[in-house]
């Protein structure tokens, strides 16, 4: 019966957040804080070990990216997930563009190598692709997938500052 407690706590927290009338909602259960702010388009979970924050909508479009992995020109930002665990930060940004996978991969490969990153692996296929970059003990990964609607989704995973 013990595993039900965390699930029940999460459901309770979500219910309490949904019941609040303001755009900012927060509750703490067992040392973990669940918060959302509709006006900022964010939802955050925080504990003593770290945090995870998801951002969507117009707030996600304001994301700041490092120069070595900039936002793809003309792409729409569809979401941002930021994490911090034991002092290490990470940012995952999802984008959508009508451009072909190969063109997007070439853009990011050029951005990384132009900034002195090594790209030890990359591949591209008809429906997807991936590349990885390394520099100064940090790593970057970028994944691509093509949809039937003619759009390419891009997931850029970079270390935080």
Describe the protein.
Keywords: Signal. This is Lipoprotein. It comes from Sphingomonas ginsenosidimutans. With about 160 residues, the chain is an alpha+beta fold. It folds into two domains: about 1-45, no CATH class; about 50-160, no CATH class. The protein has helices at about 5-20, 55-60, 100-115, and strands at about 25-30, 30-35, 40-45, 50-55, 75-85, 90-95, 120-125, 130-135, 140-145, 150-160. It has a ten-stranded antiparallel beta sheet with strand order 1-2-3-4-5-6-10-9-8-7, sandwiched between helices. A hairpin with a 5-residue loop joins strand 9 (about 140-145) and strand 10. The chain is globular, with a radius of gyration of 18 Å.
SSE diagram, text form:
Blueprint: H1 4-19, E1 24-29, E2 32-37, E3 42-47, E4 50-55, H2 57-60, E5 76-85, E6 88-97, H3 101-114, E7 118-124, E8 128-135, E9 138-146, E10 152-159
Antiparallel strand pairs: 1-2, 2-3, 3-4, 4-5, 5-6, 6-10, 7-8, 8-9, 9-10
Q: Estimate the global geometry from the Cα principal axes.
A: globular
Count of strand segments: 10
Low-confidence stretches: 1-20
Major sheet strand order: 1-2-3-4-5-6-10-9-8-7
List keywords for this structure.
single chain, 161 residues, alpha+beta, 2 domains, 3 helices, 21% helix, Lipoprotein, signal
Summarize the structure.
This protein is an alpha+beta fold. It has helices at residues 4-19, 57-60, 101-114, and strands spanning 24-29, 32-37, 42-47, 50-55, 76-85, 88-97, 118-124, 128-135, 138-146, 152-159.
